[in-house]
């Protein structure tokens, strides 16, 4: 018999990091308290679809694949019945876990889920100005950076969800780096970009954020070094060169470096001039070139530089 007709206090659930449920009565539940692997899996599947009904057929497919036992529907119903008694005792009909259209649904108004909070913060940040967006995205990373469903090591659907979550976290790390550069927080920008590059060394947007962050911090040598690592990596692993945004950041670094070294400025100015002529592009050059160039003059500059370089070695 139900203790009360209503149920207004949400349960709190953590799927990121160590699995945990805090019931409405304050009792803390962990994986072993749910009564078995399949029962926990059902709860996790419903949590990942919070607020959206999941059919019994879909649950059976995820639990057993193409090898469902006879009586699988009755077995699922039994698991759900036990799950209700565990997570919402005294409220088996009015608690968060409900029957819906031949399946089951967790009422999003009665479940405080860490993964849902993570995504809500991201959506809020999308509507904010830079400073507030930066703050909200940092909060989202505090919640979302722990592995999703880290205890579910054998389920294909769990691995798919983990991969998707990890990709989202990396995207947010890059966005935080980009915002930090805009806000003048260059140290934070470098740190978050490095974190994203470490997580996925083929993420071009992360490399661009890193090179741009070094540029914002006036660490031109470090930025050029990062670009070179990226260029070599992309050539070896992908057989391609960095895209236009990253190449543009690299060119800005070259310009900044050249402006500090008059001889290097002259050489780079000559290279850009000849490159522009070869590609029929005009208007490219360094302000510190020091002279108007012709093809012959640019060639003489490069020839002189190379002869001095050979003599020095």
Number of helices: 12
What string gives the helices and strands in order?
EEEHEHHEEEHHHHHHHHH
CATH class (first level) name of the largest domain: Mainly Alpha
* Parts with pLDDT < 50 across at least 5 consecutive residues: 1-5, 281-290
- Counting copies of identical and different chains, the oligomeric state is single chain
CATH architecture of the largest domain: Alpha Horseshoe
Strand proportion:
5-15%
- Global Rg: 29 Å
Helix content: 55-70%
What layout of secondary structure does this protein have?
Elements: E1 11-14, E2 20-22, E3 28-29, H1 37-48, E4 54-55, H2 56-64, H3 72-87, E5 97-100, E6 103-106, E7 111-113, H4 114-126, H5 130-144, H6 156-182, H7 186-199, H8 204-216, H9 220-237, H10 244-260, H11 262-278, H12 295-312
Parallel strand pairs: 1-7
Antiparallel strand pairs: 1-2, 2-3, 4-6, 5-6
